[in-house]
Amino acid sequence: MKLKLFSGILLTALIVLQLLIFFKSGKGYFYLELFEQANHLKLYTVIFVGIIALIQRDLLAVIFCSLGIALLLFVIFEASLNHKPQNPPSTERSQSYSLIQYNIWIKNKQPHTITPKIKRLDPDFLLIEELRKSDYAQFLQTLDYPYQYPPLKKSRPQGSVIFSRYPIQLVSNQLEKFKFIHYTITTNPEINIIQVHFTSPKTKYRIIRRNTEIEGLAQYLIDNKSTLKNLIIAGDFNSAPWQHSLKKMQRTTGVKTNIAVSLKNGTWPSWLPPWVRVPIDSFYYTDSVENVKSKVIDLVGSDHNAVFTRFEIF
Length: 314
Known about the structure:
The chain is α+β, with helices and mostly antiparallel strands. It is 39% helix and 24% strand.
């Protein structure tokens, strides 16, 4: 009886918190933000309550738990349900590229162990966040990339850097205001890459700040839609794809996301089991980017896992 009462209270609390998200999301409530990001844990809780209901042979509870699981699965997968790559016409030719997105972590004590694995994967583009200037110099010596931005001399003590096999041209640096930077890559056809590193949502102010940055990126995409061909947006979003600000960005700009948001491919924090991690390192793209395939890879020393992505431009 106590077990049944406990499971009922747990399920009721879960429903109340989910309703609060619908009405209060984005208002800067820190614990609500954590709950919004933790769809994995909510799903496990509902499954746990469902198992208790089965043990107790409570048919009504089983029905409610089944509905709860279905609802949470929909919330988790909603960000990518309608964004599956479409097969391009057979008459068109494509160019294939690869990219690694990785927040190396400013406290990383083993940066020297990362470059050999990156060399083996050999991505065309390498996007790094929180790269210390001293590690930047080591990356330049070890990795064979002819182009990078910003140059080592102009780089910050720690910050965002792109390494590329192809020439890079800076289009817009919005790091100070909205925490993203826009490059064009001289390929055929030309590729637009936007690298982001939004504010981590540790306090009420930082939650609001991060949401403002996402809105700033969305407005930038809308204002420059005619010129943003073959667009890729990658980086540390400090937010799961199902978070309300990122879902709104997708709706208003039409960008797609490639990561199959599931219980086994989160990127943060790296020391947790894969099925508990939150996928805050993401990859968004426009219609001309196709056949997008991603996998999460473990690069030691960071609180993030890296995301390795292959894609084609038509």
